[in-house]
Write a structure and sequence with these properties.
This protein has 306 residues and is α/β, with parallel strands linked by helices. It has helices at 29-37, 49-58, 77-85, 120-125, 127-133, 143-152, 164-170, 218-230, 274-286; strands at 4-5, 19-23, 42-46, 63-70, 74-75, 89-97, 101-104, 115-118, 136-139, 158-162, 173-177, 186-193, 205-213, 236-242, 247-251, 254-258, 260-267, 289-297, 302-303. The chain is elongated, with a radius of gyration of 20 Å. The protein starts with a strand and ends with a strand. The structure holds prephenic acid. This is prephenate dehydratase.
């Protein structure tokens, strides 16, 4: 059962200069995730998620934050794809409670709104509220970026969906809050680094893995994965088959495309536990491609920032 918290019990003894890259501008949920996971860090805003991951690969940043799943949308395959294309490892997970605000220029009322801007995921999460408002939806690159755009262009017929923090930074008013379709709305982020987890010793570990297979092999592969872990008493915490027209993975210097991938998270560490290692080895024996994305401290807390 997840616990609900406003501060991190897994806080690491970070050096103050730890630099964490994220997509968006200050006040974006990814930046809030970075600050919660790595207290005292510097955050590095990036235009795209891919440039945030590249910043880690090149050494410009120590970590990058990737949103990987939400209660309302499930797994964000586009972001797992980045983990597969780049040479980075998962160092931590963090889940935020996402309570979206509707933000507008001071003095603007709902009746004046003609359009609402936000990240496409946020617009999708707030579909019912937007339908009630009868406004046009304008996707932009991140939630806080919508707030900044609205404020710098002084738009009086528009609102943004974003965090209260993003509104505060740009001096916008909160004209509604909790506008997501489902009251319980959380997003899980992975924090990646070049070398995986550093510094967390005592928390129970978990491992994230991706298994690629041919389109017509899905059922057989599912049975093999379940049996490899169940027969060794290893608990799965996530198993989702995702993909469609080809998931690209980097294998050495080559890129290969697979029709389907299975995203599997399980308790335990491939680095520290023999039964876990054996289960992964068994899956490797029958899958087209397996990549262990990282072993890291399991964190079931849902962080509530607002
Ligand atoms: O745009 C942001 O603020 C982000 O951090 C990105 C993102 C996402 O990609 O899912 C993160 C969490 C929210 O659910 C909406 C958008």
């Amino acid at each position: 059962m997840a616990s609900f918290s406003a501060c991190s019990p897994l806080e690491l003894p970070h050096k103050l200069s730890l630099k964490v890259a994220y997509q968006g501008v200050p006040g974006a949920y990814s930046e809030l995730a970075a600050r919660t996971a790595c207290p005292g860090c510097f955050t590095l805003p990036c235009r795209t998620l891919s440039s945030a991951v590249l910043a880690v690969e090149s050494g410009e940043a120590d970590r990058a934050v990737l949103p990987v799943e939400s209660t309302m949308d499930g797994t964000a395959l586009r972001n797992y794809d980045l983990l597969l294309r780049h040479d980075v490892r998962v160092a931590r997970e963090i889940t935020l409670f996402v309570r979206y605000c509707l933000l507008a220029m001071p003095g603007v009322h709902k009746a004046a709104l003609r359009r609402v801007m936000s990240h496409p995921v946020a617009l999708a999460h707030c579909g019912r509220a937007l339908a009630r408002l009868g406004v046009d939806r304008e996707p932009v690159e991140d939630t806080a970026g919508a707030v900044r755009l609205l404020s710098t262009r002084r738009m009086f017929d528009a609102a943004a969906i974003a965090s209260a923090r993003a509104g505060e930074i740009c001096g916008l008013d909160v004209i509604d809050e909790g506008v997501q379709d489902e009251a319980w709305n959380t997003t899980r982020f992975l924090i990646v680094s070049r070398d995986g987890e550093v510094g967390v010793a005592r928390a129970p570990k978990k491992t994230s893995m991706v298994v690629a297979h041919a389109r017509d092999d899905a059922m057989a592969m599912l049975r093999r994965v379940l049996s490899a872990f169940a027969s060794r008493g290893v608990n799965l915490t996530k198993l989702e088959v995702v993909g469609g027209d080809g998931v690209v993975v980097r294998k050495g210097r080559r890129l290969r495309a697979f029709a389907r991938v299975m995203v599997v998270d399980f308790e335990g560490s491939v680095e520290e536990e023999e039964n876990v290692r054996e289960a992964v080895k068994e899956v490797e024996g029958s899958a087209a491609f397996v990549r262990v994305l990282g072993c890291y401290a399991s964190d079931k807390t849902v962080y509530n920032l607002e």
